[in-house]
Amino acid sequence: MKAGDGSAEAKRRAGHAAAEAVEDGTIVGLGTGSTAAYAIEAIGRAVENGLDVHGVATSAESAQLARECGIALTTLAAVDGVDLAIDGADQVADGDLIKGGGAAHTREKLIDAAADRFLVVVDDSKLTETLSWPIPVAVLQGAESVVADRLRDLGGEPTLREAERKDGPVVTDDGHLVIDCDFGEVDDPEELATALSAIPGVVEHGLFVDLADEIYVGSADGVDVLR
Ligand SMILES: O=C[C@H](O)[C@H](O)[C@H](O)COP(=O)(O)O
Predict the structure, then answer these.
(1) Is the CB of 15 under 6 A from ligand 1?
(2) Is residue 85 part of an annotated ligand binding site?
(3) C-alpha of residue 197 to centroid of ligand 1, in Å
């Protein structure tokens, strides 16, 4: 499940601009998805030219790309902190995000929230007035039907995410299932985020409230940075 239909050029611009914020000797959170991939590739080119960084990957996908790009990897457990994280988003409204279109939001939130500075990279198709994209909710295996009932109690329409080119549901890098829950327009993201986090069996949800420090928005004209 993927959001938006932004141009590759707009994504590339956002990813490359954010990668310029990476400083020598730092620990960098490496986001997941097609836009974050442009940032990872740009960091990789900087590493080839002598930049010394260690990456903390938010998914198997970003770890693989980082290795291909020559970026040394470490883990959250092995470092004192993350200096900067660069990650994509499926929808952005008033600085809040919906993430998890690639089912990576659990590790993404852990690493993005741990970073001193969290840069979001999106193309301009992701910007909206009010968040309304179905919210990805990672759940423990076996908890999907009780969590779905609780999501309906909150006014949502839950759908278990089905895998492509595999029978059955999507299983995340950490072995969880994903329910995409449509709440329509989310007027109070913080209230909904708190309610989702309180459901037993929910591992993590894709509402990222008040976490982003800067949002790099790529478009046909260039890059705007929203703070
Ligand atoms: O789980 C996936 C992540 O949250 C991605 O960062 C998000 O889906 C955006 O991906 P893309 O840049 O490919 O639209």
Answers:
(1) no
(2) no
(3) 21
Q: What pairs with residue 118 in β-bridges?
A: 85
Residues with Cβ within 8 Å of residue 210, at least 6 apart in sequence: 95, 96, 190
pLDDT in tens, 105-150: 999 999 999 999 999 999 999 999 999 999 999 999 999 999 999 9
201: its two tokens: 């069996």
Distance of CA 114 to the CA centre of its chain: 13
Q: Which residues pair with 6 in a beta bridge?
A: none
Reduce the secondary structure of 149-197 to three states and give it as a string: HHHHHCCCEEEECECCCCCCECECCCCCEEEEEECCCCCCHHHHHHHHH
Structure tokens that stand for 214 in this block: 């800067």
Active site amino acids: 108
Residue range 21-36, pLDDT digits in tens = 999 999 999 999 999 9
For the chain, list the domains and their CATH numbers.
8-128+210-220 (3.40.50.1360), 135-206 (3.30.70.260)
The ipTM is 0.98
Instruction: Kindly report the pTM of this predicted structure.
Output: 0.95
Task: Report CA(59)–ligand 1 centroid distance (Å).
Answer: 11
Q: Tokens 């994280």 identify what position?
A: 85
* CA distance linking residue 70 with residue 26, whole number of Å: 15
The response to whether residue 85 sits with its C-beta less than 6 Å from ligand 1 reads no
